[in-house]
Amino acid sequence: MVFKRGTSDWSIGLILTLAFLFVFITGIGDFTDVIEKKTFDLCSRISASSERNPDIELVVIGEDDLAEIGRFPWPRMWATDTREQRSWPNMSER
Known about the structure:
This protein is an all-alpha fold. Helix content is 54%, strand content 0%. It has 4 helices and no strands. The longest helix is centred in the first third of the chain and has 18 residues, at 9-26.
């Protein structure tokens, strides 16, 4: 099939292939990243259970805590001591 005079199918295919290779290599106009992230979010919402796992804890460290203990990375012994202190009764109240 010929679209215009002198334009053959293989030249249109070559132009499209080069355009897609350019987009893939440079990342300009990359729309697949957005689709991948939206699909992952949707699958995560569908597969997530409504019950919370009691084995997972969220530790929030604010600016006040960082002023007291210093910036990351912390010594390994401090992290070990913190993990042992989680079982203390007053840690859940904080």
